[in-house]
Amino acid sequence: MFIQTEATPNPATLKFLPGRVVMPEGTFEAKNPDQGEVSPLAQRLFAVPGVTGVFFGYDFVTVTKADGEWQHLKPAILGAIMEHFMTGAPLFANGYGVSQEDGEEFFDEQDAATVETIKELLETRIRPAVAGDGGDITFRGFKDGTVYLVMKGACSGCPSSTATLRHGIQNLLRHFLPDVREVQAV
Question: Which residues form the Scaffold protein Nfu/NifU N-terminal domain (predicted)?
Fold first, then answer.
């Protein structure tokens, strides 16, 4: 088994590509070992000293570190991922179902058409690019011209996430939807 690694815009996060589907649908994020208890792979990764976050996407795993150098952490992380896939262990234990919920969505019913367009743009133009950087972004709400988004994986806590929101996503949404004034992370 050959696992590729890619840098992400977040220097504290590295993207691992095991060459197979990790999660057929949805995403999973654990920001601490307690949240990772539902996944044998997350448990293995949190057992590596210095690992503070785990994110699973369709065909990748991103790992966030607190401190230490990647050159020292990477072999142990690669070993944990390889061991997991070689043993054939399930990604989640005890029939755990992945939830896409990031909290209740909120918007006025009169903005339903605008919200549908926002979601379509997120799905077709923004999420694929964000996944390429080892993260995910989902819609949370729309109120008074402000779009509220949840950033996950490599995007959560990334130094360039503010620039991504302001210059990338905000400009794209404003181009297609004049009602959008600003974009904020929640």
Answer: 3-88
